[in-house]
Amino acid sequence: MREPVKIIPLGGLGEVGKNMAVFESGGDLILIDAGLTFPKAEMHGIDLVLPDFSYVVDRADRLKAIVLTHGHEDHVGALPYLLRETGTHPLVFGTRLTLGLIKSKLDEHGLGAETELVELVPDGSRVAVGPFEAEAVRVTHSIPDAVAVVLHTAHGVIVHTGDFKMDMTPVDGRPVDIGRLRSLGDEGVALLMSDSTNAENPGTTPSEMTVGPSMREIIAKAPGRVIVTSFASQIHRLQQVIDAAVANNRKVCVIGRSMVRNLNISRNLGYADIDEDLLLKPKALDSVLPHEVVVLCTGSQGEPRSALTRMAHGDHPALQVHPTDTVVMSSKAVPGNEVNVGETVNRLNRMGATVLTENNAYVHVSGHGSADELRTMLELVRPRFFVPVHGEYRMLRAHAAIAERTGVEPHAVRIADNGTVMELDADGLFVTGQIETGMTLVDGYSVGDVRDEVLRDRRRLATDGVLIVVATIAAGSAEVVVDPEVIARGFETPDGDGQELLDRARDAVDEVLERCLANRMTEVNLLQQELHDALAPLVHRMTGKRPMVLPVVVEV
Do both 466 and 478 map to the same domain? Predict the structure, then answer.
């Protein structure tokens, strides 16, 4: 009897980002995608958020391959961290541009030489991927070379769409392979796992090609510089801005490390066409008139140290925003980044620049298919079972409703969570369990070692501040050697008289130290606890806040 195919999403369900799914058979497993997401505001100091891939790490010797659907960070960004944690060298499959982008990332992490990259060509051919055979089917998205991954298993065909929309007039002239999707449906598809991001949006998503004429018009009418920000991986968008600049006799300056890198990779691989004479170095911006240049830069999500954010704070070494500038926000804020993006837009407006967003100009279209396109995918593939993926819960539910209206039986639709264990066998698709999942936090050089109390302390420091007490005593006797020092940061008394607070805190410290000396209490840990217990309620009474109280006792 053939073993079932086990399917476990580790990220991307009930959320947007950190997409990763396990496909397991005969003891071996593969992954489709290894993505990340960005930290929420309350995750103070955290750099990146990855899926909890402990399930994979525990079975590292059985991980045979990782298949990438496209080159966006929410699908490939966790790959270097995953490879480092597993300590193994599974094959990494992807299309040409996807591998070009990921190779650069792996090289940065020192993993490029030891990771074997295998190109997937969307031409109907199959390759052995762990216990399965896989093929790539061309789809369109907001990055070139996106594919759906088709797994040929002992219990039927599984189609994982990755991110897609049904763009039949893409910038590169390579539309969705409708014919292959239809033939897969004719041959029989056991399970479809499909992108749900825009499931709540009726109709269809406009073609990427429609942004080009609007960009050309904006640049033609702009009196000064045009500063355009978009995702660094949105190669087709960047190409259209470059073409619009050429049409208006403007030079192009690219600012931002990731955008420069991605454009160079795309040019070298033939996915972008940029004349070298067109490009202008950032340090040469002052050598051309404002109406002769278009600037492409990073910062579409309000990232703290990105090029546009630094410009908005007047902190960029190469470019200062002027009232004659037109800034084009050619992207949509990723859920969770709305506050940062809004702050950037407001600062640019305060500087007098004309700021165009999707709310007041035609400067962006989504890379995800709307409801009619999702229905088209279902009608082409005609799966026996359906699992909506890549989306918050309301998106998954809306996609499930589309599937049922398209003819998938309600009992054959599974709305899963991260960690849901599903098994596909000859009798169907069944939910058989749930594993514990969560997130892996990247904090500087630390991956996954950030404890809850560390984040709790950071939140407390950010909201209530800190009170530090330094008491210097004689070793063995606990006699005070130097007057105690009290330092308050991040909070104030309601009347603004911080000196009164410090004076009363010093008095409280003196009382504690005198009492401890009288009771012959010399243990440092006990002294620190006594100081904490005396100061915490005092500060709360005077300020209404609960700052972190850090007593430091130094023995000399």
Answer: yes
Q: Which domain holds residue 263?
A: 208-356
pLDDT higher at 46 or 207: 207
- Pick from 291, 297, 323: nearest CA to 310: 297
**Cα torsion at 48, 53, 57, 62 (round to 10°)?**
-130
Asked whether the whole model's pTM tops 0.85, one would answer no
CATH of the domain at 263: 3.40.50.10710
368 labelled catalytic: yes
Q: Where are the beta strands (DSSP E) in 332-407?
A: 354-356, 383-389
Q: How many CB atoms lie within 10 A of CB 433?
A: 12
Q: What is the pLDDT of residues 289-326, one digit of tens each?
A: 999 999 999 999 888 889 999 999 998 999 999 999 99
Q: Are residues 115 and 43 in the same domain?
A: yes
Give all strands of the β-sheet with 156-160 in edge-to-edge order. 127-129, 132-138, 147-153, 156-160, 189-195, 383-389
Instruction: Kindly report the CATH number assigned to the domain that includes residue 510.
Output: 3.10.20.580
Q: Looking at the structure, do residues 179 and 225 belong to the same domain, yes or no?
A: no
For residue 453, the model assigns a pLDDT of 54
Q: Is 145 assigned a catalytic role? A: no
Residues 351, 377 within the same domain: no
Active-site residue (options: 195, 325, 443, 464): 195
Whether residues 56 and 126 share a domain: the answer is yes
Q: Is residue 361 part of a domain?
A: no
pLDDT at residue 179 in the model: 97
CA distance 1 to 389: 30
> What tens digit of pLDDT does each residue of 476-515 get?
676 777 778 887 777 666 655 567 777 788 888 788 777 8
Q: Which of 75, 236, 368, 390 is catalytic?
A: 368
User: In angstroms, how far is the first alpha carbon of the chain from the final one?
Assistant: 75
